[in-house]
Amino acid sequence: MTTRTFLGGTLAAVALACTAQADDQHQIESVTLSDIRGMVFCEFLLISDTEVTIYNTSANGECDLDAFGKLDPTEIAREHGVKAAQLNGPKYWIMDEQTLGLGETKKFGEIEARFAASLPVASLGSGEGADPYAPYVTMKEQKMVYHAGKAVYELVDADGNAYVLNAYGAQVKDADPQNLADQLQPADGWSFRSRVLDSEMVIVQKGDQPNKMVGDDLHQYYSLEAAD
């Protein structure tokens, strides 16, 4: 198992990690987002020589995909005085509610997004996020709530450990995560399943403790259900 501190991908659904260093540089407040299942969000990565700063649209309402599609990463980098910029999205939340730490708001073209994380530039790696079906550890502060009677989508490892999907990408057929059963190619020992919850599922991840996650071969990210 490797240890990483990054937003995955591609970077989105490892999402919203806030380190102690970020708390020192940004005024972080706890924000609860409700009724977000299916909400479309986008992220903006501002890349310097040493760090990647991530801004996320979730607290500002649904991402305007028309405006997002017109953005030029080179122009964004110039406007914000950084070496490079990356656009990440669209993504769609699976959870029904979450509480997380967010900082100041920046504007990217016509889109507003709030500070979500500041991470070492090495976190970008190849730009493709974590290796699929290889569990890793991230340090982030986030509470995720999945309501009873709603569907969840899980990867299960050879030992029976279940990881729940945080958000899905535009590559999911018909925008229905149920289709991942046909789209994914799980590694040996891994399987995909979906189920309807009999009771509320709550996952609490703490910034001062390791939190286990895993990615699939479509670069979507799942949190270990025992994380609370």
Automatic annotation (TrEMBL):
Record-given protein name: Protease inhibitor Inh
Superkingdom as given in the UniProt entry: Bacteria
Species assigned in the record: Cribrihabitans marinus
Signal peptide segment: 1-22
Record keywords: Signal
